[in-house]
Amino acid sequence: MITRATLEDVTALNKLINSAYRGESSKKGWTTEANILEGLRTTEQELTETIQNTKNTILKFTEKDAIIGCVLLIEKEQQLYLGMLTVSPELQNSGIGKKLLQQAEIHASVLELPKIVMTVISIREELIAWYKRNGYVDTGVREPFPASNVHVQISEQPLEFIVLEKKIM
Fold it and tell me: CA 131 to CA 134: how far, in whole Å?
């Protein structure tokens, strides 16, 4: 079941997102960033602030009272920004991510936003290919990867973001 996350979900979301992106647990799935970055992907404080912002929506995918997937959607001008698409590492490749993408498209349509945009780290080729198979196209736009004490780069390769988009209307 896909529903809107609330402040009561922050602890579970934080655990899920960090387990899917970083550390040993993330290596059970195919979307890990553990070979590129160390540190946390998010924090409870960041998630709390995100949920409290009325321009943001976090959708959660729940099964048997456990949050096993989520996606962040941000209303930005004439587009919906999609970020932090997360599926529990053990359940990746089971269709949950695709269902969350479909729900994001419904959300964009309801808000009458004509497209969804996202940024993906350029060297994450398998993930970029998956988004392309789901209708997203490379816009050609590149953005610098932010230097941060949260996202600690361990890859020798230079990192940048590729901007992908999908027209909805």
Answer: 5
116-128 pLDDT per residue, tens? 999 999 999 999 9
- pTM summary value: 0.91
How far is Cα 58 from Cα 71, in angstroms, rounded to an integer?
6
Q: Into how many domains does the chain fold?
A: 1
Residue written as tokens 């929506």?
Answer: 57
Residues 70 and 5: beta-carbon distance below 8 Å: yes
CATH number at residue 129: 3.40.630.30
> What tens digit of pLDDT does each residue of 37-64 get?
777 888 999 999 999 999 999 999 999 9
Three-state SS at 107: helix
Q: Residue 154 sits in which domain range?
A: 2-167
Phi, psi of 129 (to 5 degrees): -60, -40
